[in-house]
Amino acid sequence: MAFKAACARYNWAEPETDSNSTGSALRDIGVLGLKRSYHGDTIGTMDCCEPSVYNKQVNWYRERGAWLEYPVVKQVKGRWVVENLETGDIVEEFNTLQDIFSLEKRDRKTFESYKTTVLEAIKKHLDAGKKFGALLIEPVLLGAGGMMAV
Protein backbone atom coordinates (compact mmCIF):
# COMPACT_ATOMS: atom_id res chain seq x y z
CA MET A 1 0.00 0.00 0.00
CA ALA A 2 2.80 2.47 0.82
CA PHE A 3 4.22 2.11 -2.68
CA LYS A 4 0.87 2.78 -4.36
CA ALA A 5 0.30 5.78 -2.10
CA ALA A 6 3.76 7.14 -3.02
CA CYS A 7 2.95 6.75 -6.73
CA ALA A 8 -0.25 8.74 -6.25
CA ARG A 9 1.36 11.38 -3.99
CA TYR A 10 4.31 12.11 -6.26
CA ASN A 11 2.47 11.49 -9.52
CA TRP A 12 4.81 8.67 -10.48
CA ALA A 13 3.54 6.46 -13.28
CA GLU A 14 1.10 3.77 -12.21
CA PRO A 15 2.41 0.22 -12.48
CA GLU A 16 1.85 -1.40 -15.83
CA THR A 17 -0.78 -4.09 -15.98
CA ASP A 18 0.91 -6.14 -18.71
CA SER A 19 2.05 -9.39 -17.10
CA ASN A 20 5.15 -9.39 -19.33
CA SER A 21 6.29 -6.03 -17.97
CA THR A 22 9.33 -5.96 -15.72
CA GLY A 23 10.06 -2.22 -15.59
CA SER A 24 6.99 -0.61 -14.06
CA ALA A 25 7.36 2.45 -11.87
CA LEU A 26 6.10 0.54 -8.86
CA ARG A 27 8.91 -2.00 -9.13
CA ASP A 28 11.46 0.83 -9.01
CA ILE A 29 10.20 2.34 -5.77
CA GLY A 30 12.21 1.32 -2.73
CA VAL A 31 12.06 1.19 1.01
CA LEU A 32 14.27 3.26 3.26
CA GLY A 33 15.06 1.16 6.29
CA LEU A 34 17.63 0.13 8.85
CA LYS A 35 20.47 -2.32 8.35
CA ARG A 36 20.00 -5.74 9.98
CA SER A 37 16.23 -5.33 10.05
CA TYR A 38 13.68 -8.08 9.42
CA HIS A 39 9.98 -7.54 8.81
CA GLY A 40 8.72 -11.03 8.07
CA ASP A 41 9.13 -13.86 5.62
CA THR A 42 6.41 -13.19 3.08
CA ILE A 43 7.24 -12.00 -0.43
CA GLY A 44 6.51 -8.31 0.14
CA THR A 45 7.98 -7.89 3.58
CA MET A 46 11.16 -9.83 2.89
CA ASP A 47 11.96 -7.45 0.02
CA CYS A 48 11.90 -4.59 2.56
CA CYS A 49 15.18 -5.73 4.13
CA GLU A 50 18.80 -5.85 3.07
CA PRO A 51 20.23 -9.23 2.01
CA SER A 52 20.76 -11.45 5.06
CA VAL A 53 20.68 -15.02 6.35
CA TYR A 54 16.90 -14.71 6.48
CA ASN A 55 16.42 -14.18 2.75
CA LYS A 56 19.53 -15.51 1.00
CA GLN A 57 17.96 -18.93 0.42
CA VAL A 58 14.75 -17.50 -1.08
CA ASN A 59 14.85 -17.43 -4.87
CA TRP A 60 12.13 -14.76 -5.23
CA TYR A 61 13.79 -12.26 -2.86
CA ARG A 62 14.68 -8.94 -4.43
CA GLU A 63 16.29 -6.20 -2.38
CA ARG A 64 14.11 -3.11 -2.79
CA GLY A 65 15.63 -0.25 -0.92
CA ALA A 66 18.46 1.40 0.90
CA TRP A 67 19.56 0.57 4.39
CA LEU A 68 20.86 3.05 6.93
CA GLU A 69 23.30 2.38 9.73
CA TYR A 70 22.16 3.45 13.17
CA PRO A 71 23.70 4.14 16.58
CA VAL A 72 22.93 1.68 19.38
CA VAL A 73 22.35 2.07 23.08
CA LYS A 74 24.21 -0.29 25.40
CA GLN A 75 25.62 -0.51 28.86
CA VAL A 76 29.42 -0.45 29.11
CA LYS A 77 31.11 -0.68 32.51
CA GLY A 78 27.94 0.43 34.30
CA ARG A 79 27.35 3.48 32.07
CA TRP A 80 24.73 3.79 29.36
CA VAL A 81 26.31 4.80 26.06
CA VAL A 82 25.33 5.54 22.50
CA GLU A 83 27.74 3.79 20.14
CA ASN A 84 28.36 4.40 16.46
CA LEU A 85 28.25 0.89 14.92
CA GLU A 86 30.32 1.88 11.89
CA THR A 87 33.25 3.25 13.88
CA GLY A 88 32.77 1.61 17.28
CA ASP A 89 33.12 5.05 18.88
CA ILE A 90 31.10 5.97 21.95
CA VAL A 91 29.21 9.06 20.86
CA GLU A 92 27.55 10.01 24.12
CA GLU A 93 27.31 8.69 27.71
CA PHE A 94 24.40 8.76 30.16
CA ASN A 95 23.97 7.96 33.87
CA THR A 96 20.66 6.16 33.48
CA LEU A 97 18.60 4.58 30.74
CA GLN A 98 15.90 7.19 31.43
CA ASP A 99 18.42 9.93 30.61
CA ILE A 100 18.76 8.56 27.08
CA PHE A 101 15.05 9.13 26.49
CA SER A 102 15.13 12.60 28.06
CA LEU A 103 15.20 15.29 25.37
CA GLU A 104 16.71 17.76 27.87
CA LYS A 105 19.67 15.48 28.65
CA ARG A 106 20.64 14.63 25.08
CA ASP A 107 23.48 16.45 23.40
CA ARG A 108 22.23 18.65 20.56
CA LYS A 109 25.52 18.11 18.67
CA THR A 110 24.92 14.34 18.62
CA PHE A 111 21.45 14.87 17.20
CA GLU A 112 22.71 17.29 14.54
CA SER A 113 25.53 14.93 13.57
CA TYR A 114 23.18 11.97 13.19
CA LYS A 115 20.65 14.07 11.26
CA THR A 116 23.39 15.21 8.87
CA THR A 117 24.60 11.63 8.38
CA VAL A 118 21.08 10.39 7.59
CA LEU A 119 20.33 13.25 5.21
CA GLU A 120 23.62 12.72 3.36
CA ALA A 121 22.90 9.00 2.98
CA ILE A 122 19.41 9.69 1.65
CA LYS A 123 20.74 12.34 -0.75
CA LYS A 124 23.32 9.89 -2.08
CA HIS A 125 20.58 7.39 -2.92
CA LEU A 126 18.29 10.04 -4.42
CA ASP A 127 21.17 11.39 -6.55
CA ALA A 128 21.69 7.84 -7.81
CA GLY A 129 18.08 7.88 -9.05
CA LYS A 130 16.38 5.85 -6.31
CA LYS A 131 12.82 6.61 -5.30
CA PHE A 132 11.42 5.75 -1.90
CA GLY A 133 7.78 5.01 -1.16
CA ALA A 134 8.10 3.80 2.42
CA LEU A 135 10.16 4.32 5.55
CA LEU A 136 10.47 1.37 7.93
CA ILE A 137 12.21 1.95 11.23
CA GLU A 138 12.05 0.28 14.60
CA PRO A 139 11.19 2.87 17.24
CA VAL A 140 13.36 1.54 20.07
CA LEU A 141 14.33 -2.14 19.77
CA LEU A 142 15.60 -3.92 16.65
CA GLY A 143 14.89 -7.57 17.41
CA ALA A 144 16.18 -9.33 14.31
CA GLY A 145 19.43 -7.40 14.37
CA GLY A 146 20.42 -8.97 17.67
CA MET A 147 18.08 -7.22 20.10
CA MET A 148 19.73 -3.84 19.64
CA ALA A 149 18.33 -0.71 21.22
CA VAL A 150 18.30 1.85 18.42
Helix and strand sequence: HEHEEEEHHEEE
Helix count equals 4
What is the first-to-last residue Cα distance? 26 Å
Spatial shape: globular
Fraction of residues in H or I helices: 10-25%
**Spatial ordering of strands, largest sheet:** 2-1-6
The residue-averaged pLDDT reads: 80
Strand percentage lies at 15-25%
Our Rg estimate from Cα atoms comes to 18 Å
* Structural class by sheet pairing and helices: alpha/beta
Number of domains: 1
Number of separate strands: 8
Low-confidence parts, pLDDT < 50 over ≥5 residues?
Answer: 18-23
The biggest beta sheet is recorded as: 3 strands, parallel
How would you describe this protein?
- InterPro entries: PyrdxlP-dep_Trfase, PyrdxlP-dep_Trfase_major.
- One of its GO terms (biological process) is biotin biosynthetic process.
- This protein is α/β, with parallel strands linked by helices and 150 residues long.
- It has one domain.
- Helices cover 24% and strands 25% of the residues.
- The strands form three sheets. The protein has a three-stranded parallel sheet with strand order 2-1-6. Strands 3-4-5 form a three-stranded antiparallel sheet. Strands 7-8 form a two-stranded antiparallel ribbon.
- Strand 4 and strand 5 form a beta hairpin.
- The protein is globular, with a radius of gyration of 18 Å.
- The two termini are 26 Å apart.
- About 4% of the residues have low confidence.
